[in-house]
Amino acid sequence: MRKNSLGFIIIIWIIMLTGCSFGNSANSYHKTGMKYFEKGEYSKAVENLKEAVKLNQGKAEYFIDYGFGLVKTGQVDEALAEFDKAILNKNNKVVRENNKKAYRGKGVAYYEGGEYENAIVEFSKALEIKEEDKLNQDLMYYIASSYEKSGNYKDALNQYEKILDEFKPNAGIYELIARTNYHLGEFEKAIESYDKALEFDKDVYEYYFEKYAIFNKMGEVEAGKKVLSKAAQIKAKSKENDFNGAKLLFLSGDYEKAAVKFNESLEDGFNLANYYLGEIYRIEEDYDLAIQYYKEYLNKESDIQISLVYNQLAACLIANENYEEALGFLNMGIKQNDSSTLKELLYNQVIAYENLSSFKEAYGTAEKYLKLYPDDKEMMREFEFIKTRVTESKSSKEK
Fold first, then answer.
1. Cα 191-193-197 angle, rounded to 5 deg
2. How many angstroms separate the CA atoms of 346 and 335, rounded?
3. d(CA 207, CA 201)
4. Which of residues 106, 122, 138 is at a domain's end?
5. Distance CA 192, CA 194 (A)
């Protein structure tokens, strides 16, 4: 009996030391979870990574990977808690490496949640740690993008230029500098940067499209047409280029041919074609069809980060007098905290509230709008009208 008892105690002791359960080990769950993560099956990844963390509370790597899984499934607050568990107040190389990854994880969580100021704080903490310097470029890009998304284009430009100074130049960084200059109203500088991007790769349709948009903004229609003509000379054949050819037709205003080509791209698996078909029918004021295509795009896009889509869809719903549903999509767009579309989203939110006779909500949104965009005279007039309706509502209640 003593011998058997001793053997049982040894088995229990081995299990405790190795962190294993009678089923899978923590390491096994972690490996399985990461395989699911790499395949984009994030819910299954989270299930397995959660088990790994339960079985072994001593590995920062497990907390970090579980945190990223939670970010991918939209559980930002839970992810932040897991990254915090990985951060230790110890001064050795391994801990500093893990801390850097965990701070980066917190930054990504805040970034995905639209909390860009907090994201910058965490990315900056990670950047201060000397270890894992291979992450530095990625961190700098995230900081720049956080500034850009929060509307701080000047600091975004400074950060992008710092990346250009510290790392090997490429077409992508020039595109980002161009885009930021565009937001700053520096159109000539933006065009120069797109030209530099095209020096690296002259077969990227997007650079031509964005350059075309700037010329249009400047009112230089002929210059814009020349840019589209150059884009049309791209000879590489692929399904992606067919899709870009459809975009070329769309920008040229040939909506009928563009619609045919976008439908062909849908068959090739290009979900973004649904968005452009929505745009075509919105422009043509066929709002039912536009709504159908926008919704199809959103249904097939699991990680949608384009607040513009929510705004366009909401605008069509407003045109169809479906104000309640429009508000739902406007709120989704506003939640992304993207400064490039916030103005349109808030404006449409005011309109939707007004048409629902929700004047108190319309008043609050209009007030917020005017704090951000005080020179908008049209909204000033709208605000004064809303104010009278709120006052009338208060008076009738007092009676």
1. 115
2. 11
3. 9
4. 122
5. 5
Q: Is residue 93 part of a domain?
A: yes
Which secondary-structure segment (H or E) carries 136? Answer: helix 136-149
65 in any annotated domain: yes
Neighbouring CB atoms inside 10 A of 133's CB total 11
Q: Is the pLDDT of residue 16 over 70?
A: no
Give Cα separations from 143 to 81, 146, 224 (angstroms). Answer: 21, 5, 32
Structure tokens at 69: 């899984």
Q: Which phi-psi region, left, alpha or beta, contains residue 114 (left: φ > 0; alpha: ψ -120 to 50)?
A: left
CA–CA dist 366, 352 (Å, integer):
12
- Which residues, 6+ apart, have CB-to-CB distance to 78 below 8 Å? 70
Domain that holds residue 14: 7-122
Q: How far is CA 173 from the centre of its chain?
A: 18
Q: What's the pLDDT band for 340 if we cut at 50, 70, 90?
A: confident
- The residues pairing with 25 across neighbouring beta strands, listed in sequence order, are 20
Of the pLDDT bands very low, low, confident and very high (cuts 50, 70, 90), residue 20 is: very low
User: Using an 8 Å Cβ cutoff, are 216 and 242 in contact?
Assistant: no
pLDDT tens digits for range 65-108: 999 999 999 999 999 999 999 999 998 999 999 999 999 999 99
Show which of 74, 94, 122 is a domain's final residue.
Answer: 122
Residue 355 has pLDDT above 80, yes or no: yes
Query: Looking at the domain assignment, is residue 162 inside a domain?
Result: no
CA R_g for the chain: 26
Q: Strand, coil or helix: what is 254?
A: coil
| 281 band by pLDDT with thresholds 50, 70 and 90 | very high
- Based on the structure, what is the number of domains in the chain? 2
Angle in degrees, CA 320, 323, 329, rounded to 5:
100
* End-to-end Cα separation, the chain, in angstroms: 89
Nearest 10 degrees: Cα torsion 20, 21, 23, 24 = -40
